[in-house]
Write a structure and sequence with these properties.
By secondary structure, the protein is an alpha/beta fold. It is 38% helix and 14% strand. Helix 5 links the parallel strand 5 and strand 6. The radius of gyration is 19 Å and the shape is globular.
Length: 358
C-alpha cells in the first residue's frame, strides 16, 4: 500500500460489489466525479529552488484548533459496511494523528459513541437541515454536549442526486442502524443503500434564514458545505457562517458542476480579508493535490472515499495509513517546491498545464 489508489483497488476487490459501487459512484454521467481528480492534473506546480527546506512545518490552525497537518476527514455515511468498526475506528485514527474528523449524521455509530472512542479528538458533526426542526436542534445540542467543536451543514442536497449506477446495480437496504436519527421520522428509502433522503426528511424550501437559525442553537462554529461560487460565498458571509467547505458532494449531487479545485479561487477572492475560513474536498488523492489546494488559499482539505478504502483494508490502522501517506506526500511536495511551511504556499506557485483549455 504505497498510494491511495492501492487502497481503492483493495476495496474494489474485497467489498461487496453493491457497497463499493455505492461509495465510489457519482451522479448521472459522473462528469463531476471524474473532473474532481482531472482538475488537479490541469494545475502545474512551479517550484522555488535553492530554498532551505531541511525543516518543514505542516501545521495549521483550523477554527482555533491546532492540527499537525491540514488534512481532515470528510463525512461519509454508514461506515460499518466497510467491514470494520466504522466511525469509531475512523475517529480513533484521526485522533491518533491529531487531525479533524467530520462525523456524518447518517453514521452507523452515534454521536456519543464516537466521542467516547476519541475523547481528545477534533470532532465536528455534519448534518442536513431536516423538516423535523426538533431533530435538527437535538442533533446540534447532542454534539455540543459531547464535546464536538463545530457543526457542518450540508447545503447542496435539498433532494438526492440522480445516481444512475445505484439504480443500475439494483440498490439494497443494508441491515445497519443509523442511531443518530432513531426515534425520529427517519425511514430508509426503498431500494437504496442510502439511508437518507426520505420524502419527509429533507426540506426543499430551505433558505439562508435556516442557516441563521442554526447559528442561534449553540455556541459552536457553523460551517456550510457545498459552496461552488463567489455569489454563494457572499450569501454565506451575510448569513454569518464561520467557515465554508468548497465541495460538490464528491460528484454525487448535481452532475456537471465545477470541480471543487476549479471553484476554490473564486470563493477565496470573496472571503479574503474576513475571518471566514475556507476548506476543500473532492478529488484529493495525492500530496501534490493538497499542496495545490493550500496554494490557492484553502486552510485545509478533507478526504472521504480514501477513508472508506482505508477502513476496508485494516480498519483504524488503514485509515491512519491513508492519512500518513497523504501527510508524507505533502511534506515531500513542499520540499521539492521550495516551501518550509504551509504559509510559504501561494497561487503564484501554480500555472495551468498545456492540455488545459480553461
Amino acid at each position: 500500500m504505497i498510494s491511495l489508489d492501492d487502497f481503492e483497488k483493495y476495496a474494489r476487490d474485497n467489498l461487496p460489489k453493491k457497497v463499493f459501487n455505492y461509495v465510489s459512484n457519482g451522479a448521472a454521467d459522473q462528469q463531476t466525479l471524474h473532473d474532481n481528480r482531472n482538475a488537479f492534473k490541469r494545475l502545474r506546480i512551479r517550484p522555488r529552488v535553492l530554498r532551505d527546506v531541511s525543516k518543514r512545518d505542516l501545521s495549521a490552525t483550523i477554527i482555533g484548533q491546532h492540527v499537525p497537518f491540514p488534512i481532515g476527514i470528510c463525512p461519509t455515511a454508514i461506515q460499518k459496511l466497510s467491514g470494520s468498526d466504522g466511525e469509531t475506528a475512523t475517529a480513533r485514527a484521526a485522533s491518533s494523528m491529531g487531525t479533524i474528523m467530520i462525523l456524518s449524521t447518517y453514521a452507523t455509530c452515534s454521536i456519543e459513541e464516537v466521542a467516547h472512542a476519541a475523547p481528545t479528538g477534533h470532532l465536528w458533526l455534519q448534518m442536513y437541515l431536516f423538516t423535523d426542526r426538533k431533530l435538527t436542534a437535538d442533533l446540534i445540542h447532542r454534539a455540543e454536549r459531547a464535546g464536538y467543536k463545530a457543526i457542518v451543514v450540508t447545503i447542496d442536497s435539498p433532494i438526492a442526486g440522480n445516481r444512475l449506477n445505484d439504480e443500475r446495480y439494483g440498490g439494497f437496504n443494508p441491515a445497519v442502524r443509523i442511531p443518530n436519527v432513531e426515534g425520529s421520522s427517519y425511514r430508509p428509502v426503498s431500494g437504496s443503500v442510502q439511508p437518507a433522503y426520505g420524502p419527509d426528511e429533507l426540506s426543499e424550501s430551505l433558505t439562508w434564514s435556516d442557516i441563521r437559525w442554526v447559528k442561534t442553537l449553540s455556541s459552536l462554529p457553523v460551517i456550510v458545505k457545498g459552496i461552488l461560487s463567489g455569489d454563494a460565498a457572499r450569501e454565506a458571509l451575510a448569513a454569518g457562517v464561520d467557515g465554508i467547505l468548497v465541495s460538490n458532494h464528491g460528484g454525487r449531487q448535481l452532475d456537471g458542476v465545477p470541480a471543487s479545485i476549479d471553484a476554490l479561487a473564486e470563493v477565496i477572492a470573496v472571503t479574503q480579508g474576513t475571518n471566514v475560513e475556507v476548506y476543500l474536498d473532492g478529488g484529493v488523492r495525492l500530496g501534490t493535490d493538497v499542496l495545490k489546494a493550500l496554494a490557492l488559499g484553502a486552510r485545509a482539505v478533507f478526504i472521504g472515499r480514501p477513508v472508506w478504502w482505508g477502513l476496508t483494508y485494516k480498519g483504524e490502522e488503514g485509515v491512519r495509513k491513508v492519512l500518513e501517506l497523504l501527510r508524507d506526500e505533502l511534506s515531500l511536495a513542499m520540499a521539492l517546491s521550495g516551501c518550509s511551511s504551509v504559509g510559504d504556499l501561494g497561487p503564484s506557485m501554480l500555472t495551468r498545464g498545456p492540455s488545459s483549455n480553461l
